[in-house]
Specification:
- By secondary structure, the chain is an alpha/beta fold.
- The protein has 5 helices and 5 strands, in the order αββαβαβαβα.
- The relative contact order is 0.15.
Length: 142
């Protein structure tokens, strides 16, 4: 599931350790929706595995890169604030993919610029953003 080097501590390994210690405690509460630590772990591992299965992940270790370079594939997180946002970020960290926020108010030109400049390999997005994302991706591919 994760490709984090042994002994390295980060937010993904911290979340996993919390879930191991307290699997039945609530991790996320949003209105009536509740996710336990175990459920959050299962969902974020599934996303991590999906990203890895699609060939995304770490390309070069930090120690081999200039300070301003990224050795990871980039994942645009194009979501409203909510549990899915946290799940996307944690899943990306577990796959050693570099997630970054996309403002959900962006219009097509802003989104097009961000996806190009950010060297995005994948996008996690809410269905309400499908029309603008489809427009941008059609232009990008064509």
């Amino acid at each position: 599931m994760t490709t984090t080097p042994a002994g390295e501590f980060n937010i993904a390994t911290a979340q996993e350790a919390i879930a191991d210690a307290y699997p039945d405690r609530e991790a996320i509460v949003q209105g009536r929706r509740r996710l336990t630590n175990a459920e959050l772990t299962e969902r974020t591992r599934r996303l991590a595995n999906l990203l890895l299965d699609r060939g995304l992940g770490l390309r070069r270790e930090r120690s081999t890169l200039a300070p301003h370079r990224s050795g990871q594939d980039h994942l645009a997180v194009y979501l409203h604030d909510g549990p899915e946002y946290l799940e996307a970020m944690l899943g990306a960290y577990k796959a050693r993919v570099a997630p970054f926020n996309v403002n959900y108010r962006y219009v097509a030109d802003e989104l097009r610029y961000l996806l190009d400049a950010g060297r995005v390999r994948a996008v996690v997005y809410h269905g309400t953003f499908t029309p603008v994302l489809a427009e941008v991706l059609a232009d990008h591919r064509g």
